[in-house]
Amino acid sequence: ILFQTAFPIQFAVTIIGNTLTLSVLLKQSMRNRANHLLAALALADIAVFIFMLPTSLSASQRFYESTTFRTIFAHIKTHFAALANWFSCAAIWIVLAVSAERLLIIKFPFRSLKQYHVRAFSIFLYHHFSYRCAVLWVCNMTQVYVKCLPVTWNWTEFGLVPYYQPSNQFIFYINISVIANAFIGVIIPVFIVAFLNVYLIRLLQIRTQKAKNEEASLGPASGNFCEQERKMTITIAAIVSCFTITQLPSAILFLYEKIISDAKTETFAKISCITNSLVLTGKMLNVVLFCLTSATFRRKLFSTIRIWYRKCTCRQKKYLRHINNLNRSATQKSSLFSTISFQNQKSHRYSNNRGWSLTKVNDKSEFIPVTNRR
C-alpha cells in the first residue's frame, strides 16, 4: 500500500524537481565545483527512483497479475536493487562532499577543493549476488510464482532447492559487506555530515560576531549579518535533521538483520518497507534543502521556467496560427467551388429552357440540338 500511494508522488516530485534543477545547474554561468556536486546529487537521486520503479510497479495488481512482467522482474529485481543501493550510497557521499565544500568555502575562501577519486567499491558489489530469485511455474504452467531470498539462507525451509551451496568464504564476504555497507555507506557519512554542518554554523557565528565587533557603525548591515546567519542556521539544521532521520533507520535495520536476527517475520518486512520509504523521501527533499533554499537559485529557476513557458506558448501560438491559416484557405476554396458549381447549375438550367438536350453517343457526352415541333 505504501508503494502504491507514496512512491508515485515521490517519483514525480523527484524527477520533475531534479530535471529543473539540472537545467539551472548545468548552465554556462552556473558551472563551478559546488554546482557540479549538486548536479551529480540530482542525477544520483533520479537514478535511485528509476531503478526502484519496477519494484513499485510490482505492487500494482495490473503488473502483479502479468506473467510476462513477473518473469522479467524475477531476473532484474536483484540487479536493479543493487544499482539503486549503489546510487543511494553515492548520493550520501555526494551530500558529504557538498557539506565539506561549503565548509571550505567559508573557512578558506580562496582554496579549491581537490578532485575526488573513487576507490575500492568492491564492498558494494555484493548486492548483485547476495540474493537470488526462484521462479516456479504452477497451475499447468499458466501462473508464475517468484520468491527472492538471500543465498546464505537455508532454502529447504521454504520448500525450495538451492541452486548451489555457498562456500564459507562467500558467506563471510556477504556478511562483512553488509556490515561495511551499513557503516561506510550510511552511518559514518551521516555523522560526518552532522559534524561538518555544526562546525559550519560555528564558523558563521564567529564571522558574524567579528563583523559586529569590528564594524559597530554598520547599522542596518549588522542586522543583515544576523538575518543571514539565522537563515543559514535554519537551513543547516533542516539538512542535518532530514538527512539523519531519513537515512539512519535503514542502516540500523541492516545491522539488526545481520547481527541480531535473520528477520524472517512479516513485521520486519513492514518496517523495512517504511525505512525504504524514508530513504526515498530524503532523496525527494534533497532538491528542496540544497537548492531551493538559495535565493539566487530560486531566481534563476523561475527565470528558466518563464523562458520555457514563453517558448511553449510561442510554439502553441504558431501552431494555432498555422491551423487557422489552413482552415481559412480551405474555407476560401470551398466558397470558390460552390460559386463555380452554382454558375454551372444556372447555365445548365438556361440551356434546358432554350431546348438543348444531353445525349450519350458511344460513351462520349455531346450536346445535340433538338427542334420543337408544333
UniProtKB/TrEMBL annotation:
Source lineage: Eukaryota, Metazoa, Ecdysozoa, Nematoda, Chromadorea
Cell wall biogenesis/degradation as UniProt keyword: no
Transmembrane segments: 6-26, 38-59, 79-100, 121-146, 170-200, 234-256, 268-292
Record's GO cellular component terms: membrane
Source species: Brugia malayi (Filarial nematode worm)
Keyword Membrane: yes
Official protein name in the record: Bm4793, isoform a
GO molecular function, one term: G protein-coupled receptor activity
Gene (name only): Bm4793
Entry-linked PROSITE patterns: G_PROTEIN_RECEP_F1_2 (PS50262)
Main localization, broad class: membrane
InterPro entries (alphabetical): GPCR_Rhodpsn (IPR000276), GPCR_Rhodpsn_7TM (IPR017452)
The entry's keywords: Membrane, Transmembrane, Transmembrane helix
Location(s) in or outside the cell: Membrane
Record domain G-protein coupled receptors family 1 profile: where: 17-290
